[in-house]
Every structure is written in structure tokens, then in C-alpha cells.
Write a structure and sequence with these properties.
alpha/beta, 7-stranded mixed sheet, two-stranded parallel ribbon, 15 helices, binds pyridoxal-5'-phosphate, aminotransferase, L-aspartate:2-oxoglutarate aminotransferase activity, pyridoxal phosphate, PyrdxlP-dep_Trfase, EC 2.6.1.1
Length: about 400
């Protein structure tokens, strides 16, 4: 008989391993640049004041603790789809746009991957090299046999390898799913230009590929909520059927409430009833139905004009803080180490800076300077502050000189 002790021995990897090491480090110098959580100047996790207001409203107003349906709060999903695509009233009523509340952005990717694998017979997924670490895992756990990374960043020039990207997706078999970061690419901070998006859309249409957008940083790349959906709206206007996983964790600074939405856009709505049933079955088998609190708070903000205005102006302040930190970090590094170019720090967008460090260098920073970051030196910009920025810059230059 099989025993639990027979399971293969494995260790933690990726973000979880780095975070465990950070938690176990007792040094007062330690710096956390690991997860993409928005931090205040004092290092604490920032909570948008409007979220607290909306949460209080939810707590006061929720008298009914009955189960939600597997697809969640319809009004929430509709607002989420609207945030993505603009006016969707008619498309929604016609069953051409449909949303399902999910357990964060990861949950939306999972529901979408299960749906594509089980009901569309998709077996191949393409995602960027590099990408957010869970893309490959989510799709392979959902039965995708072929996981292929398309070229995205040229590691010599630290720019987008657009030729490589086009070549790779041009070779993708029909019905391959292609994951596209809509904005604020994680981890590179490099986004495609509108012209490049147009070309990608042409190739994907020609090759009959299925776009699966992932948007976790809407508004945090350009500072404008609508502008950051440009690529998605372009694909929509080009008549694609596609999916989009939305994470509200970063946009609403609500990481543990796990708020997300999967949007499905289809050409014809005649099959919408069956599509919903398939999605309901997937959700039932995964976690039965989602939770109310976080999604309801987001729904309050998206549907109440006063709360929405407050949210969008605080949101602009968050984007401005990230830009300011980028400038300060670049300056600090340039002052310490003129031997390397640091312009990419202010050229990249969004929450992350990719320092392009080797594994050895990342480890050295951790062991000798108590500074924690993930793969290739990906830094959460807001983990920096005006107290630690010069310490981090000095440590990076020391690491580069010695390794
Ligand atoms: N997609 C990308 C690109 C991300 O960076 C993240 C989180 O870091 C997610 C999805 C997952 O979002 P959530 O935490 O809401 O599951």
C-alpha cells in the first residue's frame, strides 16, 4: 500500500522559498523586495482608504450569508468586464461578453485553463520568456501537454525581442492558447507599443490562435486605467474570441481577499447557457462557489461614483509613487556604480524592476546584505523607500563588483 512517506522529496521553490528565507532572517537590515504588494514609505502594506470605507459598507449591509452561485456576484463581474472593455451593456445582454468571479487573478487563469483544456480540446499554451512564475504551472496542472515560452525580452539589450516574439507565435499550431500580459509585464516591466500589438493581433488572427490576456496591473503601467486596456480593446475591435484573467489584488490593495474575474468574449451569444453551465461545473469541482466580502467591496467601489472617483485619484497617487521611486533608485545606482547603465529602471513600467542579476548575485544579496528578491533580480518597486534605497543601491553595486 502506498504511504505518505513514499512521496518524492521536494523543497520549496520560487517566491515561496525566498519568502520563507526572508521570514527566518533575523537581521534588522533585511529588505523585502519579493512579492508585488504595494508598500508605504514605512514598509507596511498599504491599504487604500476607499477600500476600508467600502468594506465597512459591506459588513453593515450583508445580512444574508447564503452561498453565492458558482459564477459569483453578477453585478461584480459585469462591472469588472466594463472596466476592461468599456460599455458592454448590449454585448452582455446578447451573451457575447460573460464574466465569472474568481479567486484572484490566479483563479481566473485556472478556470480559463480548465475550460480550454476540457471543452475546447486545447493542448498547447504559449507564454512569454520570462513571465510570471505561475503561468506554466497553472496550465500544465490543467492538462496542457505543451507549454512553450515565446521570446519576449532580449537579455543582451534588455529590450523587447519583438522579432523573436513574432517568429515564435508565427510557428504556433492552430488553436494554441497564447498568454498575453495586457500591461505592466511581470517581471520585465516592458510593454508592447500599439503598433506592435497590432502586428501581434494580425499574426494571431492569421495563425488562428486563442488570446488569453492576463491583467493584474491595470492602471499601474501608464497611470491610466483605460489606457492600460488598449491591447484588449484592440483585439476586441478586431473581432477575436478571447479570455481575460483580471486580478484586483494590486488595483485595490486587497491581496488576501482574493478578488478576480474571468472575462469570456465570444462572437455569438447563442451558446451562452451551455457555456455558463460548463464554467459552473468547473467552479463546483474546484471550490464550489466564491466568497462575498472582497468582491462586494470592489463592486461597491466600481458602482458608486463617489467611491470610484476617490479610488481613481488614490490610484494615480500610487502610480506616481512608483515613478518617483524608480527615478530615485536609478539615481542612487548611478551615483554608486557608473560602470553599468541603469536607464532601464525608468524605462520599464509598473510594479517591478528587473535588475538582470545572475542566480549567484541574487543569492549573494540575500546572504551578505539581507536583501530578498526573486528570479533574475526582480524587485518590487514599492519595497524600496527613502530609508533603504541607498542601502539597497550600495549592496547591488557591491554584489556586481564581487560576483
Ligand atoms: N497574473 C500576473 C501577471 C501576476 O503578476 C499576478 C500576481 O502577482 C497574478 C496574475 C495573480 O494575481 P492574484 O494574486 O490576484 O491571484
Amino acid at each position: 500500500m502506498v504511504q505518505f512517506s513514499d512521496v518524492p522529496v521536494v523543497g520549496q521553490v520560487g517566491y515561496i522559498e525566498v519568502n520563507t528565507a526572508f521570514q527566518n532572517d533575523v537581521s534588522p537590515l533585511k529588505v523585502d523586495l519579493i512579492y508585488g504588494t504595494f508598500r508605504s514609505e514605512d514598509g507596511s502594506i498599504y491599504l487604500l482608504p476607499v477600500v476600508k470605507r467600502a468594506e465597512n459598507m459591506v459588513v453593515n449591509d450583508t445580512l444574508n450569508h447564503d452561498y453565492l452561485s458558482p459564477t459569483g456576484i453578477e453585478g461584480f463581474s459585469k462591472s469588472a468586464c466594463r472596466l476592461l472593455l468599456g460599455d458592454i451593456e448590449k454585448l452582455w445582454n446578447d451573451g457575447k461578453v460573460f464574466g465569472v468571479q474568481s479567486i484572484g487573478g490566479t483563479g481566473a487563469l485556472k478556470i480559463g485553463a480548465e475550460f480550454l483544456s476540457r471543452h475546447m480540446n486545447c493542448t498547447t499554451v504559449y507564454y512569454p520568456d520570462p513571465s510570471w512564475e505561475m503561468h506554466g504551472a497553472v496550465f500544465s496542472f490543467s492538462g496542457f501537454q505543451n507549454k512553450i515560452q515565446y521570446r519576449y525580452m532580449n537579455r543582451e539589450t534588455l529590450e523587447i525581442d519583438f522579432e523573436g516574439l513574432c517568429e515564435d507565435i508565427s510557428n504556433a499550431p492552430v488553436d494554441s492558447v497564447v498568454i498575453l500580459h495586457a500591461c505592466g509585464h511581470n517581471p520585465t516591466g516592458l510593454d508592447l507599443s500599439k503598433e506592435q500589438w497590432r502586428t501581434i493581433a494580425e499574426i494571431m488572427k492569421e495563425r488562428k490562435l486563442i488570446p488569453f490576456f492576463d491583467i493584474a496591473y491595470q492602471g499601474m503601467a501608464s497611470g491610466d486605467i483605460e489606457e492600460d486596456t488598449w491591447a484588449i480593446r484592440h483585439f476586441h475591435s478586431e473581432g477575436f474570441e478571447f479570455l481575460c484573467a483580471q486580478s484586483f489584488s494590486k488595483m485595490f490593495t486587497m491581496y488576501n481577499e482574493r478578488v478576480g474575474n474571468l472575462t469570456i468574449v465570444q462572437k455569438s451569444g447563442h451558446n451562452i447557457g451551455s457555456l455558463k453551465v460548463h464554467i459552473e461545473r468547473i467552479v463546483r469541482s474546484l471550490y464550489s462557489s466564491p466568497s462575498n466580502h472582497g468582491a462586494m467591496a470592489v463592486f461597491q467601489i466600481l458602482s458608486n461614483p463617489e467611491l470610484y472617483d476617490e479610488w481613481s485619484s488614490s490610484f494615480k497617487a500610487m502610480a506616481a509613487r512608483m515613478i518617483e521611486l524608480r527615478k530615485a533608485f536609478r539615481k542612487a545606482l548611478e551615483e554608486e556604480g557608473a560602470f553599468r547603465k541603469w536607464n532601464h529602471i525608468t524605462d520599464q513600467k509598473g510594479m517591478f524592476i528587473l535588475l538582470h542579476l545572475t542566480d549567484n548575485q541574487v543569492e549573494y544579496l540575500r546572504n551578505f546584505h539581507h536583501i530578498y528578491m526573486v528570479n533574475s533580480g526582480r524587485v518590487n518597486v514599492t519595497g524600496l523607500n527613502f530609508t533603504n534605497i541607498s542601502y539597497v543601491a550600495k549592496a547591488i553595486i557591491d554584489t556586481l563588483r564581487k560576483n
